[in-house]
Sequence to fold (153 residues):
Amino acid sequence: DGRDGGLSFLGYVVESITRASDSSSESVQGGMAKALLAIMTCPKCGVHEAAMLQAVRSTFHVYLVGKTVMGKELAKRTLVDMLKCVFNRMEAYDVVSKDTCDETSGESEGKNVAVANAAAKTSEEDDNATVATATTANTAATNGTKEGSTIDE
Fold:
């Protein structure tokens, strides 16, 4: 599971995908960005520590070396969505941690509903952001333009 210092299975998957960031092909780099976004925003996949950093670093590399505006925009939107997901999960974890501390100190147990709602909202926001980015990227690739390239925040 990666706790002994080695990579988890998901860590190896992320490592394999990030090798595509060195490719000069924009379609390969775009596919890498989409795959990493799917892994990072999936509520069932727990990408942490080194694998998460590697995914963000590789997507940033694609943004830096991108030759076309469309490729740079895809990498930029992917980075924003990845980091939104990370921060949403951190905030949800804070709510859970606070709830655990409050229950330990004997405060109200009614906060469990708030924790469940926060976790569900975070998961739903992550899913919506991923769908919006993928849809926008596919539309731009199909049209060959930047049309519709913004995501409502």
Notes: Confidence is low (pLDDT under 50) at residues 140-153. Residues 65 and 72 are 8 Å apart (CA to CA).
